[in-house]
Amino acid sequence: MNKIADPIEFARALADHTRQEIMKMCCCEWRSVGELAGELEVTQPTVSHHLAFLREANLVHVRPEGRQTFYMLNQDTVASCCGDLMLNYAPDIREPA
Amino acid sequence: MNKIADPIEFARALADHTRQEIMKMCCCEWRSVGELAGELEVTQPTVSHHLAFLREANLVHVRPEGRQTFYMLNQDTVASCCGDLMLNYAPDIREPA
DNA sequence: GTAACATATAGACGAGCATCTATGAATAAG
DNA sequence: CTTATTCATAGATGCTCGTCTATATGTTAC
Lengths: 97, 97
What we know:
homodimer, alpha+beta, three-stranded antiparallel beta sheet, elongated, DNA-binding
């Protein structure tokens, strides 16, 4: 049973610079926590904290492997939430031909 | 000269229940501040505060008229920001046929 | 088992935010 | 001009959040 995408939780996930950086970094490939922390200017616990948030929001896939944990962005959730936002807040906009 | 849509500011605008309610209420029609405050469970200054935020984010159109001020959601900004989010965070999702 | 490594959790702290009350500014009505 | 109405602004307050350090948990290597 999939978690229902809450529009406010989705927006809150995006409403932070570090979290958006994390999402970009693991958008299209699996990334370990250490990799993420290494390229960001925050500590490892801070990265773990943000990853927990993204996990709660169903915005990342998780794959534990040995002593590392790999994360990858859940693009389906992003697309679903963006679609809902469009339906709610841009119903009169139509796709360019 | 149009303000550039900042994805974090856009997300922060959506990351609050009251602001999402306001956006829904003035999505497709002009609404005065009094109307909005009347239907929401917050005070008029709180509504004005949120409208100022949405104004800064270029998310509403404003039309002063006498002693009232009418607001309407700027759907173009919403669509533009959602499009950017899709490009950044859901590049592998393709439209259903 | 012990040591080293990778991640998660706990607790603390400071900044930011959503809300309120009180008040200012602008407009309409009398 | 005075009063009433509508909205915006200022200041205060309590709560949330992002970050840190310290530590716990789990895993691999020896």
